[in-house]
# Entry
Amino acid sequence: MTAVSAILSILSGSMVGLTLGTIGSGGSILAVPLMAYLVGLPPHVAIGTSAVAVAASALANLAGHARARTVKWSCALVFALSGVIGAALGAQLGKRVDGRALLGAFGVLMLVVAGLMLRPRRAGHDPQVRLTRASARRLLPPLAGIGFAVGGLSGFFGIGGGFLVVPGLIAATSMPVLNAIGSSLVSVSAFGATTAVSYAVSGLVAWPVAGLFVLGGLAGGYAGIEAAKALARYRRLLTMLFSGIVALVGAYVTARGLARFI
# Structure
């Protein structure tokens, strides 16, 4: 690894950490294009390395939510376990797809995410929801089904999928948004780790880049949290701005992916 690559890896991680700390879920969607086009990793290596960084970041954030008791563990674990199966299958499928075509599809996903970020989050209405023997018949099917589908997408694209896990948990259980955010980190960690292991076994993870990316993400995340406090009244504006950035990057990635077919 050159000094320039090391600096770009730290800078990329800082950018993702800053957006995550400032606006929450969705920031990690930038990890793959940054690793592919800024750091210069091959497409599949960028996806595998991104999965490592996303899993590490989610675990660090999960610890804070666990201390705050915002995690609905029983629901989160069922969603994550079913999603791990989907992530493993998705990762295997993703590795079989041509790298540039996969990045093109990733660009389309970014455009979808940009649109979803502008929609108001649906609020859950059951803060006491728990997965018990009595509620299992009602909660298990949607938790397992949605978890598997979201895990498959996460594994295929090498993303944490928090922007899908949060509404998925709310749809399945009607838990409040705060609980869904905390609980989603169990799945994001599990999906990222599953994808990372799959790609690592195939030799598709750049470990030095992943380590530097995580270090940059920690610094950027701290700065983002402080920025979020100072800019709390402008949170909606920041979300709209970031959505625009994701859309522009998504359009660029899509165009690069389509160029190979022209």
In short: The chain has one domain: 3-259. The chain has a mean pLDDT of 85. The two ends are 33 Å apart (CA to CA). Residues 43-67 form the longest helix (25 residues).
